[in-house]
Amino acid sequence: MRRVRRLVHLVLFCPISKGLQSRLPGIKVKYLLVVWLGIFVGSWVAYMHYSSYSELCRGHVCRMIICDQYKKGIISGSTCKDLCEEHSLRFQHCLSSSPTQQVYSGLWKEKEVIIKCGIEEALKADSNPDSVPRRDVVLFDKPTRGTSMDEFKEMLLNFLKSNLGDQPSLAALVRQIIAMADVNRDGKVSLAEAKSIWALLQLNEFLLMLSLHEKEHTSKLLGFCGDLYVTEKIPHSSLYGADVPAFLQSLLPAAVQQLTQQWFAPAWPHRAKITIGMLEFVEEIFHGTYGNFYICETSFRNVGYNDKYDFKMVNLRKVATEMSIRGFLKGRHCEQNVDCTFGKDCTATCDKLMKQCKSDVVQPNLAKVCGLLQDYLLYGAPPDLKEELQKQLRTCMTLSGLASQMEVHHSLVLNNLKTLLWKKISNTKYS
User: Fold this and answer.
1) What are the chain's domains?
2) Where does the record place the EF-hand domain (predicted)?
3) What is the pTM of this model?
4) What are phi and psi of 103, to 5 degrees?
């Protein structure tokens, strides 16, 4: 032990000059100040992280509410027994970004899943999150007892028309919803089953999952209980494969965050394959089976991919139907274009003479997606492709959302970009 102390003394003090030794007390003070500041900042970050965690993550409240309604016979669903009786559906890691929209990774019969439910009504009903509020009074109020099957079908059809538009394919969607609601497969829909499916349809993401269920670029719905629903887990929930934690984003410079993303990003050919899938998704929601859909928050955190590098839309809550946007814009007072913004970036033009919003979204999905893809695709792109790729992305980003330009021009730009990428990776191990 004496030898170790002597060695430490030699290392610390022998190489230091007398001039530096005379300044050592000052250096020690500065060093202590920096250490203290580091501890203070670290403690503050940790405190903010965990306080926001307790605010955002209330899965126990969600489970308590759902199981309370299930035991009362108010709601039903394909996962109720597993959640509330057998406990084979378990909450694990909190992924919530809002206290009213609970998102958790979980295990269901030993398979990784995503669990989602809303507790907005619960929070309004009682300030104590550990009490069981009368959520059934607010959310599970329709249909009422005595509603016939024909009346329920009419309710569903009218609801779909108001949200998706008067599409010829809505009758088939109503049949699909009825079949989904019939959990016990007895050919009938009980009041609890009807209340559950009606509550689920009020959730934008669930409605869009049903509308886009035939598409391979959305998460598969695995089951539900009341308005809690379970989807498949997408292995990579960010376009770059990894994301800087939310509590560090405000501390790290943008350049450092970008370098981190590029470091964890897939190889360029894999990124090209993911991009092709993303362009196909844009194509699918433009004049789809159930109308037009708009991506109203274009962020790499809302899109991801699976282990085969197939594109997957992670967060459908950021996608809106054309009817929803038109309803929001209709008769809306405005002074400038920003007053006509639905979500984060679905913006229409403000008629400054009439002081009202127009109905056409200025920037289409494809232009916003190309803006997102610019850094993603150009980084590490093959030299013989980079110039043409940059040119096509620039053309794509200037697309207008006006109806006169949307049809032919939109399709042409999208197909040109897909073809350019596909030619580069086709007939390779990446295709």
Assistant:
1) 58-119+144-232 (no CATH), 246-427 (1.10.510)
2) 169-204
3) 0.79
4) -130, 125
